[in-house]
Design goal:
- By secondary structure, the chain is α/β, with parallel strands linked by helices.
- It has one domain: Rossmann fold (3-Layer(aba) Sandwich).
- It has 10 helices and 8 strands.
- The protein has an 8-stranded mixed β-sheet with strand order 1-2-4-3-5-6-7-8, with helices on both faces.
- Strand 3, helix 3 and strand 4 form a beta-alpha-beta unit.
- Helix 3 crosses helix 10.
- 52% of the residues are buried.
- The model has no long low-confidence stretch (mean pLDDT 96).
- Keywords: Hydrolase.
- GO terms for molecular function: hydrolase activity.
Length: 298
């Protein structure tokens, strides 16, 4: 493991998703303690996207932005909101120069699948419709997210393809949760990895699915056809239950004719990019912004 990250492991909390209310409180305290970057170069606005129910979003609008991304936060489908995602959404907007529409989707277990997916799809449609108002090219709208949010983003891309939804220019998937079966080597053997373990992943999927059978829109690895999807960047962490499903999904996208950039970050664990003092974490965050900037410029 990266030595700068390893030093933090004794201090890194291990959230217990068996109690979602307590987990949300701990996650909120941790996430909001992370300093946000300088946002003087952008406009930030809270809006409600009309849907059933309406979806809260926080819009980060850098000056002279040409493209946008609908961004889904992490938190195991159980934790997180636009406040906990603020440090990362602001950084993504700052580095990429893109408009970031951060989505406060409904959380499980109170709102199991497909609630979060429906919220994300509603925000994608709204962003496409409001492209002129947002000052972006409607043909340069991406979807993306971290962890659970990355899985939702991949589901949105599949849904938009199948349901003739708004065109998606790019997928930015960072350590996405894609496979509910947990049959990969990394999923089966990540029993004591920092922050995210096999048991925690199992709890997250249980809350998200609510006892229902997983569909490809919930667990994108279940999709039998990945052709016709937008180009993608997939980032994975070495010590993470999601690692092998991330790599396998990238390979399947490539085999389906989808252009993919895959970066397996050596020495990292799930969510370790939050440790901003580590050099590898700074490189991870910078790369996400740089990848999005290049993708929306082409």
């Amino acid at each position: 493991m990266d030595p700068e990250l390893e030093a933090f492991i004794p201090l890194f909390p291990r959230a217990d998703l068996s109690d979602p209310v307590s987990a949300r409180k701990s996650f909120h305290e941790l996430a909001t303690s992370i300093p946000a970057p300088d946002t003087s170069g952008m406009e930030i606005e809270n809006r409600m996207v009309p849907a059933d129910p309406d979806v809260p979003v926080r819009i980060y609008r850098p000056h002279a932005a040409h493209g946008a991304i609908v961004w889904l936060h992490g938190g195991g489908w159980v934790m997180g909101d636009v406040d906990t995602e603020h440090p990362w959404a602001a950084r993504l907007a700052d580095i990429s120069g893109a408009v970031v529409v951060s989505v406060g989707y409904r959380l499980a277990p109170e709102n199991p699948f497909p609630a979060a997916l429906e919220d994300a799809c509603a925000v994608l449609a709204w962003t496409s419709e409001k492209a002129d108002e947002l000052g972006v090219d409607p043909g340069r709208i991406a979807v993306g997210g971290h962890s659970a949010g990355g899985g939702i983003a991949a589901g949105v891309a599949l849904s938009a393809r199948d349901q003739q939804g708004p065109p998606i220019h790019f997928q930015l998937l960072n350590q996405p949760g894609l496979d509910d079966t947990q049959e990969s080597w990394s999923a089966r053997n990540s029993t004591d990895t920092p922050w995210m373990t096999r048991d925690k992943v199992a709890s997250a999927w249980k809350h998200y699915l609510g006892g229902a059978e997983a569909t490809p829109y919930a667990a994108p690895t279940r999709a039998t056809d990945l052709s016709g999807l937008p180009p993608a960047f997939i980032g994975s962490a070495e010590f993470c239950p999601n690692r092998d499903e991330n790599i396998a999904y990238a390979q399947r996208l490539l085999q389906a004719g989808v252009s993919v950039e895959l970066h397996q970050w050596a020495g990292t664990f799930h969510g370790s990019q939050a440790l901003l003092s580590a050099e590898v974490s700074q490189r991870q965050i910078t790369e996400l912004g740089d990848v999005l900037r290049r993708a929306l410029a082409n």
